[in-house]
C-alpha cells in the first residue's frame, strides 16, 4: 500500500446520477471503500429523465432489486420501444422497437430479405416482423426471453419510471448498505495548491468534507469537473440545434401504453412517457427558431390529460466534457455532457460510467494510463450515441419550416455520413466497436426515416420468391400468435 490509496469516495449530487453511482459502488466496492454522498435539498434535482433502454435491467439485477417491488416503488411501466411520429414526414410514424426483427440468417441480417422484397415491388411492412412492435401497439406485455418452440428472441424491454421515486428508492438501498448521506450545499471547493486536485468541499453550514476521489454528479452545474477544475467542453450544437426543453407532468390517459412517444413538431419534438400515476411530457426545441412561449404553447396544446404542475424551462448545451475524468474528479450524469433525450440514453450513460469507474477503480492511486483509457472509452461512447441522434434529424423529409430545412442541409460527422451512404448504396450497416445501438436499431431508424437501400446482400437471393413469401407468412403468423397470448400491459403491472 502507498499513501495515495483511495479509500474515501465523495459523491457530490443526489439526482439519478448520484444515487445510481452510490448504489452500484456500495454494492460492488462496499468492503473496500467508504462512500459519502452530499446533496442539497435547496438546489434539488433536474427532475426529468424517466425513459430508459434495456441495459437498465442489468443495472437493477446487479443491485439485486426485485422487479415487482421496483415497479411498485417507482410507479414504473414497461417500455418496448420509442414511437417516432411525424419524424419522417408529417402524418407518418415508425418505431425504434427494442430486440430483433424477423430471423437473422448466418452472415446476413433479416432486413436484406425485406429490402429484396421491397425492391421487387413488395409492400410488406418491416415492423410486421418485430415482436416488440406488435406487442407495443397491441398494448401487451409479459417477460418472454424466447418465442415459445423456437430459438427466436422474445421481448426485449426497459422501463419508464418516476425519476424522483427512483432516486429515493436507490437512496434507501444505498444507505442500508452503508452509504453516508450529508445534506448541504457546497459553497466552496478547495484545491490542493501543488497538484490542483480537489482537496475538500466547504458546505454553507461550515462543515468540511474531505475525500480521496470525488464523483461530480451535480448535473448541469458541473461544479467540480468544470467550475473547479475548468476541464473544458466540446460543443456539438452545430450538429444538434435544440438547446431548450420545457417539462410538465400531466394526469395521463388510458390505456397506459408500453412505449415512449416522440412527436416531431415544427421546431423541435415532444415526449410522452406514460407512468402508472401520471404522464411525463416535455418539448425539446431550438431557441433560434421558437420562443419559450411558442414552444410552451405547442406543448400545452398537446398534453396527455391535465397539467399537474407549472411548466419548467430547462436550458442546455449539447456536447461532452473534454475529459470525463480529470485529476481526482470523475463526472457522471449531466455534469459529463448532454445529449437530448431522443433515444433515452442519459441514464444509460450514468450506468455505463459508474460501471467503468468501478472496473477502473484506482485503489493504489490515480494512474494517468487508467484515466486516459477511461476518457477514451467515454468519448467513443458519447460520439456513437451522438451520431445515432443526429441521424433522426438528418434523414427525414420534413421541409415545412426553417428548422427542418436547415437539418437537411447541415453537415453531419464523417462517421455518420459514411454509415448512411453505405446503407443507402448496399443495405449494409455495421455496429461499430463500443456502439450502444445494434444493427437492428440503426436499420429501423434508417428505414423508418425513408432511407431505403438501393441493394441488398446476395445471400437474400438464396430463397426463391415462394420460399421468401413462406418465410414472411410463417414469421408473421408466429408473431401475431405470440402477441395474442400475452396479457395486457396494465394487467402485467397489477400482477
Ligand atoms: P440532477 O438531477 O440535476 O442532480 C444534481 C444533484 O447535484 C442534485 O442532488 C443537486 O442538489 C446537487 N447539487 C448541485 N449543486 C450542488 C451544490 N452546490 N451543493 C450540493 N449539491 C449540489 N435521461 C434519460 O435517460 N431518459 C430520459 O427520458 C431523459 N429525459 C430528459 C429530459 C430533459 C429535458 C433533460 C434535461 C434530461 C433528460 N434526461 C433523460 C437526462 C436525465 O434527466 C439525467 O441524466 C438524470 O436525471 C441525471 O441527472 P443528474 O443526476 O446528473 O443531475
TrEMBL record:
InterPro entries: FAD/NAD-bd_sf (IPR036188), Flavin-dep_Halogenase_NPB (IPR050816), Flavin_halogenase (IPR006905), Trp_halogen (IPR033856)
Signal peptide: none
Pfam family, one: Trp_halogenase
PANTHER family: FAD-BINDING PROTEIN (PTHR43747), FLAVIN-DEPENDENT TRYPTOPHAN HALOGENASE (PTHR43747:SF4)
This protein's name: Tryptophan 7-halogenase
Source organism of the structure: Biformimicrobium ophioploci
